[in-house]
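re: ur question from earlier - yeah i can do the single chain one, its not a big deal. heres the input i used so u can compare w yours
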Amino acid sequence: MCGFAGIINLDGLQGDPAQRLLHLRAMGHQLARRGPDDEQFYDDGFLSLVFRRLSIIDLDSGRQPIWNEDHSMFVAVNGEIYNHRDIRKRLNARHTFSTRSDSEVIVHLYEERGAALMEELNGMFALLVWDTRNRRLLLARDRLGIKPLFYTMAGNCVIFASELKALLAHPACPRELDWNALHPGHAGMHALPTYVKGIEHLRGGQYLFLEQGKALTPRTYWSIIDHFPAAPGAAARSAEDYLSQYGELLHDSVHKQLMSDVPVGLFLSGGIDSTLLAALAADAQQELHCFTVVEDSTIEAGDVEQARRACSELGLHYHPVRFDAKTVADELDYDLAQFEFLIWAVETPRYSVEWMLKHELHRYAKTRAPELKVILLGQGADEFAGGYSQSMGRESQSWQAYTQRIAGLHEQLRRGGAGIPEHMQQALAPGYPPDRETPGLSEYHRHMVMRMSLLQSYNLWHEDRTSACQGVEARVPFLDHRLVELLASVPSALHESLFFNKRIVRTQLERSLPSYPKDKLKVRFYSTGKGESINRLRTHMIRRIFPEFRSKYLDQPGAIFSAQSLDACYRQISSSAGAAEEDLMALFECMAITVFDDLCRTIPTKGAPAAVNPPSPLRAWN
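and the output i got, formated as tokens:
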């Protein structure tokens, strides 16, 4: 994992190089935690670039950007190419390699195949290739959108960056809050918000060429829709065939993603997905460090005990860490500065306590294992394999009942995304507005399309940022594109047998770790369906930070929200009766929007907020 940022004008950049270097330094400063090991600059009068490196592969000679043999083009990559050794073997006869870096294969593939090079890559990446002779820049993002890439027009220039905050560090970047992006339906079916007007997020599976006289139009090289069955009829393959191939591909994906010249860890919740990763990784990586969030809800669900048992049986290092209201008060000493840092780190006006838990778990992991730079996550196991059909607190009686429920969700999101007022939606005729994006698909295939957007706009977004700000690369073996393509290809006739209660994933765990309880329900992160302990944690956090937040943000001219309105909400939360989850989340979101808006406007002058660095004050739980 690394980060890059830059600005390009194919007619020639304005201003003197010294001024451009100042802008690059400011942008690179925002990426410093993402790439703490090295910083490189490049400026040829057309392209101005900063690259920050986190050294994972080829620690000594893998500095980026990496040039081709005749120094006519170079590559810069945020992410990892897991099949780079196989590609290198094919290219060795025709190219001279100067490093052992996984990234170098890209520049040589580009020489041979141009943008079609992405077809050969297995990995997670945001990349650029700069062709100095033709003044042509390629920007591209991996198929699933695991690694981020933002861009915006500023006059005749295009500014781009691995993170939103690096883009905002350039004085020519737009910075007005996009209120439409906060609409509940906006990030549902297809949108990929950035929350700032005029800034775009390159979608997963897209690339963009910047060259003289060409429009700024992203092109799609991969789409999950292209891998759906050609016809909804009977299955040509058996369910067992899919089960076997899924197991083979997942095993290969896990072993590919253990590729590293530095220590690797795993976030082990004790649920089905992360336990399966632990079982598959254990035979190749006995030094795997496993970290578990211990919260009342995860204890109640039985996940903590399952994590302990798995580590004991597999011989892995087990690191449970306790989170509750007392921990926040006594050990983390949670305050407004930490809240502001988290909004800066995750760079979105939305807010979830999950971000704090994940960020602090990464910080704890770096404290216990300082050389750790890679963490495996179970993210992405649910989205395409029926993972939401059965879960604690939200059980479905049948696959049909589940698909009916998600059909209603799709309608709601489509109508919200179309801007139809909520109070009118119940009166609309069935099927209005028409589905112009994915007509003719089964409900679950349509659900996969929706989940692609949600992964990029929420799950992968915060997982990338909370790891990156601790100098850790998060890897997601379940999102190997080969696995996603296989699941997408399953015909509707086999959806129930393979996806209800996530059978295709559960079967792999039964085969890899037979002792794991076969009837254990999926538990959404820190949620057993009750939520009392998490609401206590949210309430405690609000009480600690709201008074200072009010003084700093609401008592100033131009405040977004009314102090009186938020005071009333805070009084309800602080009362003996307490507050409902909706009230807590509403106040958190108002605070997050305020802090985010302030960051957008002040990053060029204030830079990054004070960092929350290791060592973590948290202690192991017994």
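Residues 443-468 form the longest helix (26 residues). not sure if urs matches, ping me
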